[in-house]
Amino acid sequence: MAARSWLFILCLAVADAGVLQTSAQPDLKGFISIDCGLEGKTGYLDDKTNLSYVPDDGFTDAGTNHNISVEFMTPLISRRNYNLRSFPDGERNCYTLRSLTAGLKYLIRAAFVYGNYDGLKKPPVFDLYIGVNFLTMVNITGLDGAALEEAIVVVPDDFVQVCLVNTGTGTPFISGLDLRPLKSTLYPQVTETQGLSLFGRWNFGPTSNTEIIRYPDDPHDREWVPWINPFDWTVISTTTMVQNIENDIFEAPSRVMQTAITPRNASGNIEFAWDAYTQPKDPTPGYIANFYFTEVQLLPSNALRQLYINLNGRLVYNESYTPLYLYADLIYEKKPFLRYPEYNISINATSNSTLPPIINAIEVFSVMPTINVATDSEDGTCTYMYSFSDGSLNFRANLIIIDTR
Ligand SMILES: *[C@@H]1O[C@H](CO)[C@@H](O)[C@H](O)[C@H]1NC(C)=O
Ligand SMILES: *[C@@H]1O[C@H](CO)[C@@H](O)[C@H](O)[C@H]1NC(C)=O
Ligand SMILES: *[C@@H]1O[C@H](CO)[C@@H](O)[C@H](O)[C@H]1NC(C)=O
Ligand SMILES: *[C@@H]1O[C@H](CO)[C@@H](O)[C@H](O)[C@H]1NC(C)=O
Ligand SMILES: *[C@@H]1O[C@H](CO)[C@@H](O)[C@H](O)[C@H]1NC(C)=O
Ligand SMILES: *[C@@H]1O[C@H](CO)[C@@H](O)[C@H](O)[C@H]1NC(C)=O
Ligand SMILES: *[C@@H]1O[C@H](CO)[C@@H](O)[C@H](O)[C@H]1NC(C)=O
Ligand SMILES: *[C@@H]1O[C@H](CO)[C@@H](O)[C@H](O)[C@H]1NC(C)=O
């Protein structure tokens, strides 16, 4: 039986530096980047991305600021995770992000680093909503645990609320909040009635497992996390720019597509797996995956790399596929896979293929039904009296360490 790759998760990050004036407005790129719980009215320039982070003053009225415990303030976690805002009062507390373009697609990402800020040594479990739509249950395990939750949704109004809901299992808090506009043509699986909740966005083949690729390499500031397994996979790569085809609907960044993996056993397959993240409010999540491919080697004319993808022994795509040389391409699903407790993926070479299979990156999402994503604009105070539970196993941290068994 071939080994399966499993994910083990730690925490990580980036950041630092300059000084900027705060503003509750998107920047010129339409980005909003918030350091929740940052004291004062002055932001700073993040030294890894050159994006300006602002305090959450003006985005929410409620809550109190805290610093994480000093023993968790290591260079491994980013500056914005040194502080957070917690919401001891009220069942539901929201951030309101304004000056958006109604009808546009947005990526909304929230970061949570507990760091024993309250001295209770007990990370809370709470729910995260985009407007009235349940995104996920945030369940941080371990004092140094971290969660990173992301949704891609159509925002029907010129504002959107991100809400933390107390489910009676600890005080909700948040460390950081990002909003990034996406062109309407991107992520065709996202519609007015369906959003995507990120489970994981992995880059195969980087050399360092702390090397997260995001802005400016990815103009949309998606975070591509390394998935490394030197026991089973060999890395192949190119230094040549990988291009996007015209009207590309995913726009994978070149730096992600420049690295790929092939099986160490050249006659074997690429295999990896994930378990469904089942939650009380989403007990049978429906997953969608985008499989990204680029041929990074110039092949002789008599060579052929041709592959297909199996999920739990069923074909994901019914035709043989050959990656394009130095162009980003992908196999993606419009509808969720059949629902399983675990997802075993195998990428096999066809019998005609003279080369082993490759893959460059993968995104896995669970689908998220959406209605009126923004919520009632009169409800600026966010004091709803209901509580819910749950969402999807996200890739709940920034640094992923891979173990093989
Ligand atoms: C950030 O901006 C500085 C000054 O313009 C530049 O030297 C640096 O390369 C930039 N960093 C990134 C990651 O773009
Ligand atoms: C957090 O630490 C910073 C820097 O030491 C300090 O300025 C700020 O007042 C602290 N915040 C809280 C809520 O204690
Ligand atoms: C949170 O995660 C831990 C560890 O995986 C698990 O034991 C616990 O049951 C989870 N909490 C909830 C409310 O699901
Ligand atoms: C390589 O993979 C092939 C096909 O799965 C298998 O028959 C063979 O035993 C593998 N070799 C090693 C060294 O694992
Ligand atoms: C996935 O693979 C594991 C280990 O190879 C196996 O035990 C399990 O039954 C497989 N699951 C499915 C749904 O095929
Ligand atoms: C693959 O499936 C599509 C849609 O069901 C069908 O139109 C196409 O003919 C199939 N291709 C092959 C090679 O079976
Ligand atoms: C693809 O590879 C997997 C894992 O080695 C194997 O179980 C499966 O039978 C292969 N699929 C086909 C159609 O050969
Ligand atoms: C392999 O190549 C032969 C000859 O070109 C072709 O008839 C056959 O359909 C190919 N098989 C696959 C799986 O593509």
Automatic annotation (TrEMBL):
Subcellular localization: Membrane
Domain Malectin-like: 34-367
Superkingdom to which the source organism belongs: Eukaryota
Membrane topology: Single-pass membrane protein
InterPro entries to which the protein is assigned, alphabetical: Malectin-like_Carb-bd_dom
Record bears the keyword Transmembrane helix: no
Main location: membrane
Pfam families named in the record: Malectin_like (PF12819)
Entry keyword Zinc-finger: no
Record keywords: Signal
A single Gene Ontology CC term: membrane
Signal peptide: 1-17
Protein name stated in the entry: Malectin-like domain-containing protein
